[in-house]
Design goal:
392 residues, alpha/beta, Aspartate Aminotransferase, domain 1, Aspartate Aminotransferase, domain 2, 2 domains, 7-stranded mixed sheet, 4-stranded antiparallel sheet, 12 helices
Length: 392
Amino acid sequence: MNFDFDKMTDRTNTASLKWEIRENELPMWVADMDFETAPAVTQAVLDRAAHQIFGYNIVPPQWNEAYCSWWRERHHFEMQSEWLVFCTGVVPAISSIVRKMTTIGENVLVQTPCYNIFFNSIVNNGRHILESPLVYAEGEYHIDYEDLERKLSDTQTSMMILCNPHNPIGKIWDRHTLEEIGELCWRHHVLILSDEIHCDLTDPGEDYIPFASVSEHCAQNSITCMAPTKAFNMAGLQTAAIMAPNEFIRKRAERGLNTDEVAEPNSFAVPVTVAAFTEGGEWLDALRNYIYENKMLVRSYVTKELPQIHLVPSQATYLLWLDCRNICRDSDVLAKTIRNETGLWLASGREYGESGEGFLRMNIAAQRSRVEDGLRRLKKGLESSALRNPQT
């Protein structure tokens, strides 16, 4: 079946977070795709809406089965049905689990630059952010294990939030790396909370490895957050899951989700999940190919037209991490200048931790013509007189 990812859908005046913009602006910041979702998902919404009664809902076995079969077939991981618990979203789950599984004043470790909402989930709950910055060398990132272990060994560190694949750098952590992280956390009694929402958006030919699949220690000392919402562009339908093989950990986390009232599905949450995981595979594969072609387009353009910036290599997500430090060291100034000069709205790297200073995050999950437009605007913005001083 052919899918038209070049189709333009007008999202203005739809109360879209992404598209509530000024005239002539192009938003390429928030992780929200401009593609219509898989036909099977749309049909599931229409079928459920046709019933015209939207009362309270349960989570039927088909929901668990859809998750288990998808992870078995796509990610070679045999999950048990009882390991899964419904929740309304990955971010609500992270906040709830931080509240339930740690104590006020304790440290929650993150590897920066990382998804900025992790900071909110930690600080808003009265916990301390403990950064273990990734090492950026020769244009790529790797883990500083000495720093990581030193901070995990702090008796006040009770949780580590892992991002797998990593947002914003798009890195797929390999099995050895995940096992090393798992052993360090096991040794120092630090619970792993693994955000794996981007796992289905790998480049063609690239495979992500579920953290809990790596070893028994990883499985028994972790909670994984997962959802179809990022891959199938349906965050507004509020459907996700947590997965924990360890019964004690799972039951505690489940109590937290119920206490926070984020454990009950709306009328569309279950049908769209089942549709995505049972009928959406062909669409997703076509989407991944299209996004990869966009990524190659950006890489070619940056190499030829913007040699002063570096596109960090990635294997997953539709988010690109641009090293602009040769032009401007202040990400906020950089992003603001580009937006004011050209209308292109990118995310400031500073949002992802101090180590993101001088970087920009760009969302390329859009029609090719929009990506091309964004690249032209980026070039114009980077050539702005306001950015001539590279030490700004």
